[in-house]
Amino acid sequence: MSAPPARAATIVDVARAAGVSRQTVTRALHDMPGINPATRERVLAAARELRYHPSRFGRGLVKPAARTLGLVVGDLANPYYGELASAVLGLAAARGWHVVMAEAAGAPGLAAGADAVIAFTGTEFPDPAVGAPNLPVVEVDPPRPHPGRARVVFERTAASAQAVEHLLARGSRRPVVLDVTTPPGGSSRAAAFVAAFRTRGVEPHLAHRTSAFSHLPAGTDAVVAHNDLDGFRLLRELHEARRAVPREVRVVGVDGLAVGDFCTPRLSTLAIDLAEVARAALDLVLELTEAPAGAPPPVRVVEHVFRAREST
Amino acid sequence: MSAPPARAATIVDVARAAGVSRQTVTRALHDMPGINPATRERVLAAARELRYHPSRFGRGLVKPAARTLGLVVGDLANPYYGELASAVLGLAAARGWHVVMAEAAGAPGLAAGADAVIAFTGTEFPDPAVGAPNLPVVEVDPPRPHPGRARVVFERTAASAQAVEHLLARGSRRPVVLDVTTPPGGSSRAAAFVAAFRTRGVEPHLAHRTSAFSHLPAGTDAVVAHNDLDGFRLLRELHEARRAVPREVRVVGVDGLAVGDFCTPRLSTLAIDLAEVARAALDLVLELTEAPAGAPPPVRVVEHVFRAREST
DNA sequence: CTGAAAGCGCTTACAG
DNA sequence: CTGAAAGCGCTTACAG
User: Fold this and answer.
1) N or C of chain A: less Cβ packing under 10 Å?
2) Is the predicted pLDDT of residue A279 greater than 60, yes or no?
3) Between A22-29 and A37-49, two packed helices, what is the crossing angle to 10 degrees?
4) Separation in Å, CA B13 to CA A239, A295, B46
5) Can you point out the beta strands (E) in chain A?
6) CA-CA distance, B150 to B299, in Å (whole number)?
7) Which of 96-135 (A) contact B at CB < 8 A?
8) B208-221, pLDDT tens digit by residue?
């Protein structure tokens, strides 16, 4: 009927089409009292015809708007980030905040649409704060912390030591620690395991995250995977190679995924309470927006916990 | 140093603090040419001190802003929704769109922050379009489609028939179909399986999604789970009960999760290409905003595929 | 029941 | 190099 408009219809377009003033359009659209029913119908029809949808910006300028939190996460297809996102979304909804999300590559765009950003990617990513000075940013377990920035730190020392203790007590002597960095051993999670093994007089072999079991040193009797997903893959490979888990080889994951409880054998893992992580990150956002300028960046620590299941 | 401000600082606060005009503040903040370096430093310092962060609304009104897509999903801790969200985020980033996300409960708030909404929850959820007339909404596989609304329909007939054929060919005769609805059998995915079994002269038993295997009829030799996660749980229960899969009992999931490939036994499943689903949904959003008023709601169909792995 | 005016916070020409 | 003016789309008092 009408040609597609070159630009989106505004309130004045609707007013003109209905032959009324802007305020009357507002009244009709918001079901406000004191408007002639016939007038309202006419306005609503015009709005429909023009596909009028009020501009978020016009409205935001004039009414108190919901805060919008930016959330940068790693690969959402990994349930780890899904669980975290779910926790953040829940807390944000409870506070009436909106959440704009992006995976690492989309981080730079976020600043334009958010009042504050939480970044949790596991890998390095484009800084969301470039071109957005003074944007409050909270980093979660950053591989390379940005100095002066608020962050949630993951503490792994105790849990790694516990896991190592557990492996050694069960007889493992030739462990391998898998890692994302090149050379392996550069990430804080791998470093925590290596330190724990060394403290107990065992020198672990280091290999890259993606190494197949068949390429690890002969005699390997324990593997610390980079994360649970990698742990699953490893268990699968061991199953196909007919290696008994945990008798011949023990496997530890990192992340504490809920699905790890349903695979066979159940994957032992370093778990972290993602609901607590989400809460800490949101608290920091709040703290950041209220702290005086120049205050030292706030930090929260969340502890990993070793959860022994069947694979060790 | 300064007391926390009652309201966020605006550009005029910064201008006043630095003793310049608003335009000069804009120039300093955006690294524009033609500004005295000393002036710029003074402005930047004032902005930092006041924690000034430009309002999205003021800016959005005056510069062409990124489109913002609302995405309502089911439980993100389920990798199924994570994979879909990941696909949507990727496509949106490629088009320069922002994405505000919410889980089902947060849907009503979304309308205020989005230009269009894609809803994919698997369950019923509060309508995001209340109070937001003319908001373009695309529903993905809605349990109860909203009449007149654009949607992506999941076609399961062929894939269900294939799965059923596969089960019968391997000797299953006493199948159970698990479902979310009360009574079971009300969802389209369960209905497709039931119809497929009946076509082949087999009457499946229906039970609620959460039923333990031990509560299913004696002699049950095949189970169609509501989704892959339920399938994993079932496999785990069968493992603990020492029932051989697939020899004694065959299990089929629905969703096609990537992790299903790493659990043992690998879960056979009805898979759907979530990247294709995401693409279809985004296409519909575009179509919706360009179609003339009163046009019939566009629909896209995406086919499930039966993926036989080890559990059948 | 309806409309003219003011103002939210910002940027973009345009003057000086 | 810096500032006064106009205007983006909307809502909220205030008049009539």
Assistant:
1) N
2) yes
3) 90
4) 66, 21, 9
5) 68-73, 98-103, 116-120, 137-140, 150-155, 175-179, 205-208, 222-224, 250-255, 268-271, 299-303, 305-307
6) 6
7) 96, 98-103, 105-106, 109-110, 112-115, 132-135
8) 999 999 999 999 99
Protein residue with the closest CA to the C1' atom of nucleotide C5: A23
For the cut 70, the answer to whether the pLDDT of residue B1 exceeds it is: no
C-alpha distances in Å from residue A75, one per residue of A84, A158, B74, B86, B272: 12, 27, 17, 7, 19
Quote the pLDDT of residue B4. 43
Min Cα–Cα distance to chain B from A198, Å: 32
Q: Decide if domain A11-62 falls under CATH 1.10.260.40.
A: yes
User: Does A4 score more than 60 pLDDT?
Assistant: no
Q: Which nucleotide is nearest to A15 (CA to C1')?
A: C3
Topology of domain B157-271 in CATH is Rossmann fold (3.40.50)
Is strand D less than 7 A from the beta carbon of B39? yes
pLDDT at position B2 is 42
CB of residue B140 closer than 7 A to nucleic acid strand C?
no
pLDDT category at B130 given cuts 50, 70, 90 is confident
Q: Given CATH 3.75.10.10, say whether it is the number of domain A68-153+274-302.
A: no
